[in-house]
């Protein structure tokens, strides 16, 4: 008569195999968690450094932010399809065809 350990799905062999898989999954989860914690600590350190730099150089930080926003805005505007000419050319043409002396200026600007 065959023993239980010789069967395909039976006995202690399956339980040992399941517990080994569970341990490996648990170890992998621990490694992912440790990696996440290390990445979070690194990002927090970089964020504190950036805050300190901005606090020491507020004017440069504002200019950098303005330049970065302008650059990203122009890049996005140039990537928008369906325009026969770029935005800045259309705006310049519109300004060229304006009748500046005929414009009605607000009272505050006339004084």
Topology summary:
Layout: H1 11-56, H2 58-79, H3 87-96, H4 107-110
Helix pairs in contact: 1-2
- Spans where pLDDT lies below 50 across 5 or more residues: none
Number of helices: 4
Mean pLDDT: 79
How does the helix and strand content classify structurally?
mainly alpha
The ordered H/E elements are HHHH
Query: How large a portion of the residues is in β-strands, by DSSP E?
Result: under 5%
Q: Report how far apart the termini are.
A: 112 Å
* Number of strand elements: 0
Helix content bin: over 70%
User: Main sheet, how many strands, which sense, barrel?
Assistant: none
Shape designation: elongated
Rounded radius of gyration (Å): 33 Å
Summarize the structure.
The protein has 111 residues and is mainly alpha-helical.
List keywords for this structure.
111 residues; single chain; 74% helix; mainly alpha
Account of the protein in words:
There is one protein chain. With 111 residues, the chain is mainly α. It contains four helices and no strands. Helix 1 (11-56) packs across helix 2 (58-79). The N and C termini lie far apart (112 Å). The relative contact order is 0.03.
